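Run log // design_07
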């Protein structure tokens, strides 16, 4: 009986340890445009706080996280304002069109206060945050 209890406890420990760190694929997202542009999000983060409108805080974030998505039927102008402050790690903010990389908007800059205007053609667009062990605060407005 003690042998089975030990095995059970060992399995629980392995499960908990396996769930407390980013996966290899989540770590690979940072350097792989195909993974960045993939349909869904995949991430590990100790904390994500997105309670405040147009503001998000990541702590020890690795992977991809979509902050905006829009289907554009005809051409449309999109105005984006970003204010980013990174505490540690690496991050990118990318624009995806139809599940393909369109543009890297911000690439691992310490402090960002930027306004950008895009004239976008028809398609499905997403803005994703890509991180590698990053802790950062992002405030944004997209019109």
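design_07 sequence
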């Amino acid at each position: 009986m003690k042998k089975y209890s030990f095995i059970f406890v060992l399995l629980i420990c392995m499960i908990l340890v396996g769930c407390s760190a980013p996966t290899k694929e989540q770590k690979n997202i940072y350097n792989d445009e195909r993974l960045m542009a993939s349909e869904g999000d995949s991430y590990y983060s100790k904390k994500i706080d997105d309670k405040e409108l147009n503001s998000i805080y990541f702590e020890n974030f690795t992977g991809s996280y979509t902050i905006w998505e829009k289907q554009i039927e005809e051409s449309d102008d999109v105005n984006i304002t970003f204010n980013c402050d990174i505490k540690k790690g690496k991050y990118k903010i990318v624009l995806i069109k139809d599940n393909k990389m369109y543009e890297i908007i911000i690439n691992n800059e310490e402090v960002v206060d930027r306004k950008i205007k895009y004239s976008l053609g028809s398609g499905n667009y997403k803005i994703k945050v890509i991180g590698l062990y990053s802790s950062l605060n992002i405030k944004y407005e997209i019109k």
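Strands lie at 42-44, 47-49, 55-72, 76-97, 100-107, 111-120, 123-142.
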